[in-house]
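Internal QA ticket QA-208
Title: Verify multi-chain structure generation after dependency bump
Assignee: T.L.

Test input:
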Amino acid sequence: MLWSYTKTASFYLLVAIIVLVSVFPFYYAILTSLKSGTALFEINYLPTHFSLDNYIAVLTTGVFVRNLGNSILVASSVVVLALFLAVTAAFALARVSFRGRGLLLMTILAVSMFPQIAVLAGLFELVRAFGLFNTPFALIFSYTIFTLPFTVWVLTTFMRDLPVEIEEAAIVDGASPWVIITKVFMPLMWPALVTTGLLAFIAAWNEFLFALTFTSSNETRTVPVAIALLSGASQYEIPWGRIMAASVIVTVPLVALVLIFQRKIVQGLTAGGVKG
Amino acid sequence: MASTQSTIRIVPTGHTKRAKSELMRQRLRAAGWFLVPMLIALAIVAGWPLLRTIYFSFTNASLTNLDGAEWVGFKNYLNWTVLKSGRVIWSGLLSDPAWWNAVWNTVRFSVVSVTLETILGTVVALVLNAEFKGRGLVRAAILIPWAIPTIVSARMWGWMLNDQFGIINDVLLTFGLIDHKIAWTASSDTAMIAVLIVDVWKTTPFMALLILAGLQMIPRDIYEAASLDGVHPVKTFWKVTLPLVRPALMVAVIFRLLDAMRIFDLIYVLTPNSSQTKTISVLARENLIDFDKFAYGSAQSTMLFLIIALMTILYIWLGKVRFDGGDR
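Actual output:
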């Protein structure tokens, strides 16, 4: 009896530790962002201060709002572009059998494993040659390297699972492949499209290396770079309060989205991982 | 591959042979047109830049003079000059201590972080696979570290690990685990530990979810049978769970390992300028962009690519991991 109580208690202790460790850093960031002045340097475990100074400072001074706009523009354009290219490609890869299909899928997977640094030099040359340097287009262009293989891969696994009868019925009715995709599959694919789109959006929103390298002025930066480079009046004075406020601003929408689409995201991740 | 069942097989039989093979040809043609835009896009953003990076690694290109790059052979990789005195001076990245330091850091980081993440991920997955009240809440909670951008995690933890005002030092001091405040990110002894803490915190959820997906594919009756036979739960884990979850685990490990090998952002933000944590990606970017040694940085990037490619091939070959959907 006692043994079973101990077992249950230690299990829930483990659960509590997992939850605490997962949530605490973000909770602490929110706590810090609500402090101002010298309160910042007192260590508190529970909320004691409530001041929006840091948020006001981040949103009114500097170009952080502009950076947010850049991030939204880049991430949404990348998602639209990747989904558009991936849906048709996934149809071909999932529903039509042709020679070399397996090899092609492997190649696409291999591209998603490319270390980004390996293409940095070549992309840098391309971006400059196309005159895209220091514009959002440089990022929309270069992010395709990781969003496209990923979306193609996940949509292919989703499309493979659609019942063959639906497609047969459409073919009997004389539907062309394009009609099958747009009229028959697309309505069934919405959940998958939302999931993959969301995952691609998060990946683009968080990207750092390309954003750091292909933009050079404060106005064209995306939020990760802006947060990484946020500095105070002097080199030695790091504005922790403002950094935390900016961090909370960019993270809250993501956390909210992830929690809303929890189930779908877990599905998408495992489709890209376990099956991928 | 069983998945061919879900694609339409057109078997030419009897009088419909002509019509059906025409249909098949139409489908193949459409498939070709559907694939072309994606393939062109990938060739432009992945294939071509990779080839250019490899090309630059054999030249003397500099950031400001890419077009005037001249072929220099393997000079960036390894080169030697024999002095009059007979002494041989080596140059190139294979004789560069900074390069080997970065390789060592990358390997150390990848092996330790992925090992920890696998162990902790398995623990979390086993917890989530058990049925208890509030499971949904726990699953939501572990998604939070995954959802937070790496840069934000680096900043958040940078603040928590701050030597003067950091909460980590405060906790450890309160519990008497340390007797003085530690400069986690700045001190050379602890910089790597700091990076590992943040990376493990951020990526264990991903690992846990992948392992959980594998766990959920194991039929429950196996466990019932084992418990009826009186097999100890620990033995059940080693003899039943682990072998059955191994394929999912292997794929998760290789994915994480390849991802860890190319780490850049966390280290760039959390421990800038620390030679204890400088990985290949960080070193290569420094040479490419900051130090104007474009060709040398290209050579380092190419080496990282080769290492990762080699590892992938080895892993697929040794582990017989199937990426094509396995048993589907």
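Spot checks passed. The radius of gyration of chain B is 26 Å.
Status: verified.
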